[in-house]
Design brief:
By secondary structure, the chain is α/β, with parallel strands linked by helices. About 35% of the residues lie in helices and about 15% in strands. The strands form 5 sheets. It has a 7-stranded parallel β-sheet with strand order 3-2-1-4-5-9-14, sandwiched between helices. Helix 1 links the parallel strand 1 and strand 2.
Length: about 375
């Protein structure tokens, strides 16, 4: 059994991963800053904190602090680096913070691995589907296409679908594989690509096994219901439970690949326990694309709510239109297959949400921030 450090281990993915690793007999240390955006102002009231506090060695620290990293790395043979700022829209105006936490924090970890004595033999780093930008499409005339982000002019005229830049014909979404073009459309996506590349390059030079997991849209019981910057299921749920209307951006047909937390944990453990891998990257998703309107309608039905669903044609600059992951590589190499369908996972999520206190809805505040910065139209 391994001794494992999880940075950001008190977060949604980290806490669930920690509990599963402990059940499997591993020893877990967690390094976490307990960001109020995720845990609230008092970490002792956070359900995620309460789920792990007596089961792990806990370091309340910051990945931008070398000493905190050194404490966490000591006596551990595996690092799962999850700690990051994660709001795509927020990253476009909190640029210094996102680069500071995501890039500087990762660089300090790697500098320690390069220069200090340690026992680390593997690093698993959380990458993101955001590194692909819009992802892969097919044009009937020009074949495989990786379109650039949509223009303000195009979106303002209500033309939301992707079109071929050469023939202006509609593009068809296909699954994005790991060899697809890397062209992120947000600061967040840039920082995740930076984290992935730094980790793979540095660890390879040090003889440390490294795996980057490109998580898609992770959801499930335990995710923050108070964070208005990320997690569409949580945002919509909090709106519904506060009897607030849901503003569905664009035409509601934009889509995402939603992957259930238990499947994400299983994929991450496969990456940790695989012994014959030196350096590689994998998509972690469901391989299924679900529209935002479907999400909103499903949640409204499951909560038995009568809130208004308003398809507004509002849009956020830098948002992608669609997402669907090709997960054939992780199945072939690590043996991963998602087990939880979106419908089943959504029912478990809603069941859990109903057992929680209703959080205050801060979504309008987050939208006003983006409008003030000219990012929301």
């Amino acid at each position: 059994m391994a001794s494992i450090l999880i940075s950001g281990g008190a977060g949604f993915i980290g806490a669930n991963l920690a509990l599963k690793l402990i059940d499997l007999g591993h020893k877990v240390t967690i390094l976490d800053s307990f960001s109020p955006q995720i845990h609230g102002d008092i970490k002792e009231d956070s359900p995620l904190f309460l789920s792990i506090k007596d089961k792990v060695e806990l370091i309340h620290g910051d990945v931008r602090n070398r000493t905190d990293w050194q404490k966490g790395i000591a006596n551990n043979s595996v690092i799962v680096h999850l700690a990051a700022e994660t709001g795509t829209g927020q990253s476009m105006y909190q640029i210094e913070k996102y680069i500071d936490v995501n890039c500087l924090g990762t660089s300090i970890m790697l500098d320690i691995l390069a220069n200090d004595n340690h026992q680390v033999k593997k690093v698993v780093v959380a990458s993101s589907r955001a590194i692909y930008g819009e992802g892969k499409y097919q044009c009937d005339i020009h074949g495989e296409i990786y379109p650039e982000e949509r223009s303000d002019k195009q979106l303002s005229e209500g033309h939301f679908e992707m079109i071929c830049a050469q023939c202006e014909q509609p593009l068809h979404l296909v699954a994005t594989d790991e060899n697809s073009k890397i062209h992120p459309t947000s600061i967040y996506g840039i920082t995740k690509n930076n984290q992935e590349q730094m980790t793979l390059v540095a660890c390879k030079s040090l003889g440390i096994s490294a795996v980057a997991l490109r998580y898609q849209n992770v959801y499930g019981p335990g995710q923050s219901l108070s964070n208005p910057y990320t997690g569409i299921l949580s945002i919509f749920s909090t709106r519904i439970l506060n009897n607030n209307a849901i503003n569905i951006f664009e035409d509601g047909q934009e889509s995402r690949d939603f992957v259930y937390i238990d499947d994400v944990v299983d994929a991450t453990i496969l990456a940790i326990e695989c012994e014959n891998m030196m350096s590689d990257s994998f998509n972690v998703g469901s391989g299924v694309s679900t529209t935002v309107q479907t999400v909103a309608e499903s949640l409204k039905s499951m909560y038995e709510s009568d809130v208004n669903l308003h398809v507004s044609a509002n849009y956020r600059l830098g948002d992608i239109r669609n997402n669907k992951a090709d997960i054939s590589k992780i199945h072939r190499v690590l043996g991963f297959s998602p087990k939880v369908s979106f419908e089943s996972g959504l029912r478990e999520f809603v069941k859990w949400v109903k057992s929680q206190e209703i959080e205050q809805d801060h979504f309008d505040q987050s939208i006003n921030e983006m409008k003030d910065k000219g990012l929301m139209k």
